[in-house]
UniProtKB/TrEMBL annotation:
Organism in which the protein naturally occurs: Parendozoicomonas haliclonae
GO-annotated cellular components: ATP-binding cassette (ABC) transporter complex
Top-level EC class as recorded in UniProt: hydrolase
Name recorded for this polypeptide: Sulfate/thiosulfate import ATP-binding protein CysA
Keyword tRNA-binding found: no
EC number of this enzyme: 3.6.3.25
GO molecular function, one term: ATP binding
Amino acid sequence: MSYLSISHLQKSFNDLLALNDISLEIEKGEFICFLGPSGCGKTTLLRTICGLESQDSGSIIQDSVDISRLSAEKRDFGIVFQSYALFPNLSVFDNIAFGLVNQRRPKQEITDKVNELLSLTGLQEHAQKYPSQLSGGQQQRVALCRALAMEPGLLLLDEPLSALDAKIREHLRREICRIHRKLGLTTIMVTHDQTEAMTMADRIVVMNAGRIEHVGTPEEIYLQPASAFVADFIGTSNTLYGEIKDTSLLLPGWTAPVALVEKRTGGETTILIRPEHLTLHNEQPSGPHAQGTISDIEFLGSQLSVELKLDDHQTQSNKALKATLSLQDAHHLTLTRNCPVWISVQPNNVCL
Ligand code: ATP
């Protein structure tokens, strides 16, 4: 059985269905991210897991124990909030020791545990300072230590990095991953930042309007999104409308059908192609391709982002597509605004 097993959770706030039939299995030691747009129910799901909200129906089993109706104090979790929520009148040491002191643990055990966590997060020299004397990143590390001090079975992180500036955020992101690897603690993090989710999670739970849209590894979610919503939310996609006939895909404006990797049922379909999966040519290629004109070019540092207007002779429309190229690939091409280009795609990079 999974470490955390969530079945058919339902939660409403008046008329609003915040969680709509949520089922999810989380294995021991996994790092899971709940990802989705504002208001999709990520925080409500996290708060329901730890008992800060109660569900209308459905069950939560943690480590083979049904915790569905247990109060938050009786559940086995540690939580870190976006706002740090440290005690301003207590030193760093005492903030971290707080829960252990409350449990009347032996003094030496508390000192050892707090020192171990201070050293794990590089905060030793700040032990006697007060929260107001620390930077945001340092305060968040203290909050993390305080949650870890109780050695919880489940670590919950509610947008822990979103109040921090970009550089510190990136640093703390790596630090949380390192601590997770070291302690192997089952961790759930709420975020609306896809880079955070893609770089930190073993599996991502993509949510939309109270429902789970897709659960998968970052790679699965990026390369084989379960829905148009997921494809659009994670990264950038070109959306095209085509038609399947046996093992061929007819794309409007394309000179010939693209051979599909596997046979699919026919009919009209929505196709997603990632910008980095479009190949540009200065001359007409031999396989299936479309022709277009470059309407815009953006330099992104290590990549070029090229916007193309596709000449669609069939529908007489001018569709805009986005292509991204490495500087190395772009080096072999002449790419200027208004210049004509030919576009092709590998069949295995077409997501139906
Ligand atoms: P964000 O990224 O903005 O924090 P979220 O995905 O975490 O969003 P939730 O905070 O879980 O979303 O909220 C889900 C929905 O439930 C939202 O429409 C929100 O307004 C509503 N909601 C959440 N808490 C309450 C509450 N206590 N009372 C009424 N409505 C609530």
